[in-house]
Structures are given as C-alpha cells and as structure tokens.
Amino acid sequence: MQxxxxxxxxxxxxxxxxxxxxxxxxxxxxxxxxxxxxxxPIVREWLDCSDDGKTDRYYFFKTNNYLLxxxxxxxxxxxxxxxxxxxxxxxxxxNGGEExxxxxxxxxxxxxxxxxxxxxxADRENIVDYxxxxxxxxxxxxxxxxxxxxxxxxxxxxxNSETFNLHLLAGEGVKYGTIDTDLLGVAITEFDKxxxxxxxxxxxxxxxxxxxxxxxKHREVIQFAKTEVFHxxxxxxxxxxxxxxxxxxxxxxxxxxxxxxxxxxMLFNESISKENNIEVFxxxxxxxxxxxxxxxxxxxxxxLKLDIGWLKPQTGTHYKSNFSxxxxxxxxxxxxxxxxxxxxxxxxxxxFTALNCNTGHFNFESTKNELFSGYFDNRIEDSxxxxxxxxxxxxxxxxxxxxxxxxxxxKIEDTLMSHFMIEE
Length: 424
Known about the structure:
Elements: E1 8-9, E2 18-25, E3 29-35, E4 41-49, E5 56-62, H1 65-72, H2 78-82, E6 89-95, E7 101-106, H3 130-137, H4 147-159, E8 163-170, E9 174-175, E10 178-179, H5 181-204, H6 219-223, E11 227-233, E12 237-243, H7 256-272, H8 286-302, E13 305-312, E14 317-323, H9 325-336, E15 340-355, E16 361-366, E17 371-376, E18 393-403, E19 411-421
Parallel strand pairs: 17-19
Antiparallel strand pairs: 1-7, 2-3, 3-4, 4-5, 5-6, 6-7, 8-12, 8-13, 9-10, 11-12, 13-14, 15-16, 15-18, 16-17, 18-19
C-alpha cells in the first residue's frame, strides 16, 4: 500500500453509523453507504490492501443527499463524488491490525492511483442496493422545501464558501437547464455591480466618492469587491457565485463579505416590501442605489422572475429575496418616491458670458468667479437684446434643487428673475 503522510487521528469521527446499502460490488462490497447520526450519507470506499492481505485500506467521507443521488443517477462521476466531501476532507482507515489507523485525507493531496477515471459514472444496473439507498436519501424528502434551496446548500457546503445563488425561474430566454447568453451576461453583470458598489460602501463609507479600478489608490478594497462564478445547475437555470476574497473580522466571527451580503439583502427586501422602510437608503451611497436601479430596470425590461439567496455554510446564515416584474417595479417606485426638491433665491454681481435670444438661455460669471447657467423668466425674456458682455450686472436668481436617489449630483435649475446694470 502507498505510504500516506498526513495527520493521524485516534478514531474515525463518524459515530453511530448505520449501514444503508451497497452501492458497488466488485467481488466484495467496494462502495458502501452508511447514515450518520446527524442524517448525512457517509460513503466507504475500498482502496487498497497490504501485500500479505491482512490490512485493508478504506476511504470514508461525508456527502449529502444531492451529491449522492446525482452520482446514482449518473449526473456526476465517481471521481467527483469522492473528491467533494462536504467537510472538505475525508479519512483513510487502515483496518487489519489491533487498532485501526485513521489518517485525514485532504482532497487536494489525494493519491491519483486511488481515484476512478474521469469517465467512470454509475450505471443503475450495477448499483446493488439502489432501492434501499433511494428510499433513505431520495428527493421526496425535499418536497417541503424548495429544491433549489437544497442545491444551494449542497453547493455551498461542498465548496465551503459563502455563496450567492441567482435562480432565474422565468423570463424570455430562460428554459430548464439553458439560458440565452446575453441574458446570463446581463444577470451576472448587473448583480455584480450591486455587490461591488455596496462592497465599496462597506469598506470606505457611503461618502467615499467614485472608485476607479484603474487606479492603485484602493487596490486592496477593489480585490475584496469581486465575485466569481463557480457553479451552475438546471433548476430552471441557477448560477452560483462567491466572493473571490474574504476577510475575517478581528472583532467577531463574521466577515466583511458577510456584512456586504447583509446590506445587499436589506436593500432588496426593504425596497420590495410594502412597508415604508427607508433606513437602508440612508446608509448606502448614490453609486450603490444607482447600480440597484439598473438591476431593477433589467428585471422589468426582460420580465424576469428571479430568486436570489446567500448562504454561509460555516454558520448556516441564510438570506433570501425574490423578484418579479411587479416587485421590481414597486421597488423602483419606492426609490423614486424618495426624491426631494428644495428652492433658494439670491442676488449675484458679475458679467454675462453667453446669451441666447432664441432660447432665453444665459451663462453668467460672478465677481467671485462662480459660474451660473439657466434661463430667463419668460416675463423678462424680451430684455435680453439690451444686455451686453462688458458691463457689470446684479441679477436675481431663483433656484430649484432636485435630488434623486441613485444620482450623486442634484439637478439644479436656475431662473433669472431680474437684472440691472451696476452704475456709480
């Protein structure tokens, strides 16, 4: 047998295993499925034996219903099943001496000689206890929950990473297991924009200003604002993303990426709620709100039905939200309703730098080098022809200020109400 250099533990940590059935039989039961005390399937693979035949080497690993049934149904290979234990590792057990020798099996250092070929898939006819295993771990047990939630949980535990799930249920270009490329690109890109801007808010605060990825000023922050697609599933079409980098907090067991996810789902759920909750809009920048409006626009334009979830396998923390045409429209209207207007009026001394007799538009530079631009009030528009660019004027302006969520700079409309030449 190959020598395995790895950490040795005293006993196999899977206690009170109950044998469910044999998966594969090659002269003897080579692949056997057990059930752990907490209900997970535990798979035992025979790998090797000593030259004298007295010691057998087995590989034990914890999987889940989803992966096990996918293997049984030929959707993933035997190799994929073995290399994806939900804990991230399994155990080599040498059985035959006075005491079993148990060694932690890291999937990244798994001896290739012990793995099936890439093209080895299960054949139902060769599964010995198919009915027993199916009865114990079948998909019927998922009827009380959303199957996609279960897939999300399985993928997240398998990857051992915080995971976002974009589940596109309906819309033009969405079918079971397939999706139009342009729609997939838009869905990922628009969601990633929301994630990125809220990540910048989380690290730098809502008054951070615009962040450019082309500069080195915030390089470290920018890397923590990136996501990557690492899995997809046919249900109708489901995409799984995760942060490319995660940074633990020094003060508690959370992470900055968890804080980002919390803000994202606070934004999603408060905006689509019928309740008049606006707190979340007060802690996010206009850049974040703008990216969210773009996201909503795509849902409305494409009439999408979309579920979005986030799961942290280490703690089981789970956020979820769902969108439809009507919900996205409601969210956008709620944001629009947060617009406000203000007004002001003041006098300014200076000179005109541009005048348009046809449109009534003016440009004006004050004696303090301030620039003003706007339109004459229609009641004095005829006086434009008597003005010049040489003399000093005192003008009276009425200003209307409109601030819309998602737009950083307010819209300013200046109306010139009166003017007179400054003389000695």
